[in-house]
Design a protein that fits this description.
The protein is 50% helix and 4% strand. It is mainly alpha-helical and 101 residues long.
């Protein structure tokens, strides 16, 4: 189980990313638009830099939804390998059986 503080920090980041997504996209669009004057594009870049750092989607990290583990994460299942094996052993993942040879 991951530290509760790290899980809560990740939740806070996810909320900030969602909150500022529209504003961030709008400012990026202005900054990338070559037809706009250079001053306007520069001002958009400055406004983008003033937004909270944790509102950037690149600061998010994939975490297991069951345990909060940051490593060995399966994107498709949104959980770590350890949590997946635990659920599969209990028979809670349909179609998954423990292999033996």
């Amino acid at each position: 189980m991951a530290k509760v503080s790290m899980i809560e920090r990740q939740k806070k980041r996810e909320a900030l990313v969602e909150k500022y997504a529209a504003k961030r996209a709008e400012l990026k669009e202005i900054a990338k638009d070559e037809s706009r004057p250079m001053e306007e594009r520069f001002k958009a870049r400055l406004k983008l830099a003033k937004l909270p750092r944790n509102s950037s989607p690149t600061r998010l990290h994939n975490r297991c939804e069951v345990t909060g583990r940051p490593k060995a994460y399966y994107r498709k299942l949104r959980m770590s390998r350890i949590a997946l094996r635990d659920l599969a052993s209990k028979g809670q993942v349909p179609g998954m059986v423990k292999s033996s040879w």
